[in-house]
Amino acid sequence: MLFHVRMDVHIPKDIPSETAERIKADEKAYFQSLQQSGKWRHIWRVAGQYSNISIFDVESNEELHQLLMSLPLFPYMHIEVMALCRHPSSLHADDR
Amino acid sequence: MLFHVRMDVHIPKDIPSETAERIKADEKAYFQSLQQSGKWRHIWRVAGQYSNISIFDVESNEELHQLLMSLPLFPYMHIEVMALCRHPSSLHADDR
Amino acid sequence: MLFHVRMDVHIPKDIPSETAERIKADEKAYFQSLQQSGKWRHIWRVAGQYSNISIFDVESNEELHQLLMSLPLFPYMHIEVMALCRHPSSLHADDR
Amino acid sequence: MLFHVRMDVHIPKDIPSETAERIKADEKAYFQSLQQSGKWRHIWRVAGQYSNISIFDVESNEELHQLLMSLPLFPYMHIEVMALCRHPSSLHADDR
Amino acid sequence: MLFHVRMDVHIPKDIPSETAERIKADEKAYFQSLQQSGKWRHIWRVAGQYSNISIFDVESNEELHQLLMSLPLFPYMHIEVMALCRHPSSLHADDR
Amino acid sequence: MLFHVRMDVHIPKDIPSETAERIKADEKAYFQSLQQSGKWRHIWRVAGQYSNISIFDVESNEELHQLLMSLPLFPYMHIEVMALCRHPSSLHADDR
Amino acid sequence: MLFHVRMDVHIPKDIPSETAERIKADEKAYFQSLQQSGKWRHIWRVAGQYSNISIFDVESNEELHQLLMSLPLFPYMHIEVMALCRHPSSLHADDR
Amino acid sequence: MLFHVRMDVHIPKDIPSETAERIKADEKAYFQSLQQSGKWRHIWRVAGQYSNISIFDVESNEELHQLLMSLPLFPYMHIEVMALCRHPSSLHADDR
Amino acid sequence: MLFHVRMDVHIPKDIPSETAERIKADEKAYFQSLQQSGKWRHIWRVAGQYSNISIFDVESNEELHQLLMSLPLFPYMHIEVMALCRHPSSLHADDR
Amino acid sequence: MLFHVRMDVHIPKDIPSETAERIKADEKAYFQSLQQSGKWRHIWRVAGQYSNISIFDVESNEELHQLLMSLPLFPYMHIEVMALCRHPSSLHADDR
């Protein structure tokens, strides 16, 4: 089941840079593990902004929520979620 | 080059249904030709709305604009475009 | 899986009242069938508005979308969908 | 009488974590007491956000306000309230 | 129990003026009956707009909704409802 | 002359609580003096929010502005003002 | 007493042009009478829009409302009203 | 003097196509005359929308307003105007 | 040439009051010099807010920008600018 | 390929002024190098605001993103990006 997720990142300026770098590194590792698992199917950077558009492929709302809440950057992000469905006109069976 | 495009469709109620069906059929054919060509890489239906989120893979803004303006449903749509880039953390080389 | 759905109904004034009444009757019948099936778990009227807040219990985004698109009043509604999860503090196992 | 309440939680980053944990624990205890009493009828987590949608069953606006103002997390929340009524089409007498 | 209600009136230009006048007359009669009953406690015109701010004194959300839905001008109004409580600092016991 | 005033209070978390309490006490005393004078005709708490809706009865915009600027909580409030008039349908001569 | 009034004019396309011209002529005559009386102290066109910013000098909200409701173009306008006061730093006694 | 102007075009669907084509042709001719004169310095199409971003080089607000009001498509456009200045860091003397 | 400027002032609470008073005094002196010169033609306080509506009479966008950027309070203000023109119906020749 | 970019700058008040000046100097140097290269084709100051409207001429979304992310002021800016195309009516071949 697919979800469209927009993440806008706002890291406060007064966080020590090492702390920020560590959180970002944890975020990247966590993200790549999910990408390999297929849960985090797509991620694109929004040009000009510290934001991304992602497509998650999960079994349930609950799973999506747990994945997002576990993001090391979660406390510093505004997240918008939209439930997606396969488009009836799409030629791809599951739109990979 | 990838673009995130949201399309919200509002077909006026007073359009004869045959006309509406013909336009939708033309739209589907046109869409599928672009999907096969790879230009229209992804399309998903927004759950609960006559809207879709699409990802276009084009050579330029100009090409994107021409593709969108040629949509049979274009006169009945509100369209928002966002330029995307490959995310630096993504494991996929081109995020297919 | 639960979804929060807000529906704002705008029936154009120039629709013949018999047509409007028939559509509303079809809507009520369709709604009650879904309520009995448990798919449409909750519905409440927003005080002062021709709007409702509903909670759907479905297997997937796709099922939700099909249920909503099949609403006789769908063409006359603005719909907003939010994916919900069980709240970690809730005492109810599945929050019935 | 039912009220739809949306709560968005924003705990400042500079609050000592023990303090934050204590407040959250108080919040959970207070919430569960109200859930058991039936006042706080439903609570769902909004997927991807530190927010919830709740349905309160209270005798008056005043009671609702007192319950909400007494939330330990109240100072850190943005709250939106909507008055609900039983939907005329609902099969459930009181929509439990 | 008090509710703050804002009503913005938009009567379509293509309604025959006699019809519009009749609806407005019905609205005035209905309003004055509620004002006399105390249900419609206050009404003020918003300067420069075909809008009013009203304070309703009702027993429940349900009663408020029925009163508002019965307004002859209801189909031509956008209505916003806010639940009010007595202010703790007010000297007036019930704020008449 | 009546004015509708909405006040949303945001007291910064880092103000010492004694200071906050003193300001609130001053605010209450100042408010009650204006309520007794009839200037501050109505005040209601917005259910679920640290906000109020008030109706002021003043001689001029200037007087309203001076009254509001003198509120001890003024620096911590967002205020919206709307000019009101007596509603032509109201049975109350001056809508007391 | 001064009020800032923004007027955005939207004359429906399907109004016969003679009717529109007559209404505009009435509007101009009515406006100029108020300008001469000093009630309508200032009027400026917003560059690029069929809108104006006006400053009214009236005795009360009621008078402002009557003047605005009597505008021949009133049914085709969206109007926003803001109460103004003399600025404490202004050198002009009454800011003419 | 430079002004940033956004124009969103909404031509009603019920306008006869010949009329629409004639208006568009007049618009193009008028535009090109202004482009040649240097008044209309830049125009770009917003990708995916029937909108443009333009930069006007005029002597005054008045001149800008007259140019815009004279656009054959003016009645069918929403226009936003922003006053621009030369950027202090720009290497181009007048940013041609 | 006239510009409508709205200024909303937000002085951070943690600025020492003497500093704030000095900046305000500088602002008043600077303002009065511009008022005397005719550049700052009108200023009104928005009732209930630390905001003003001003009308500037300047030779160009550039001059307006320099005047506004030189305001001692500029760093603490949100400013919105609208280009104005003389209204065609105005009786005053110079109400430019 | 052209992009319309709006940049709103918000430098926190608590940054040491030397640091702020250094960042601004770096920004100016970086900007001028891009202006000379033709990448940063246009930049205009928005009158009355610490904001600019810029037109970038780049090969891809990716290049635009890299250029923007490398701005020394990037952490202190809100940026909005719009993809532009050549307008079909423009007389300039590439709209220089």
Automatic annotation (TrEMBL), chains A, B, C, D, E, F, G, H, I, J:
Keywords: Aromatic hydrocarbons catabolism, Isomerase
EC numbers for this chain: 5.3.3.4
Keyword Transmembrane: no
Keyword Nucleotide-binding listed: no
Biological processes, Gene Ontology terms: beta-ketoadipate pathway
Pfam families registered for this protein in UniProt: MIase (PF02426)
Origin superkingdom: Bacteria
Single GO term (MF): muconolactone delta-isomerase activity
Family, per entry: Belongs to the muconolactone Delta-isomerase family.
The protein's assembly and partners: Homodecamer.
Name this polypeptide is given: Muconolactone Delta-isomerase
Organism listed in the record: Uruburuella suis
Gene designation: catC
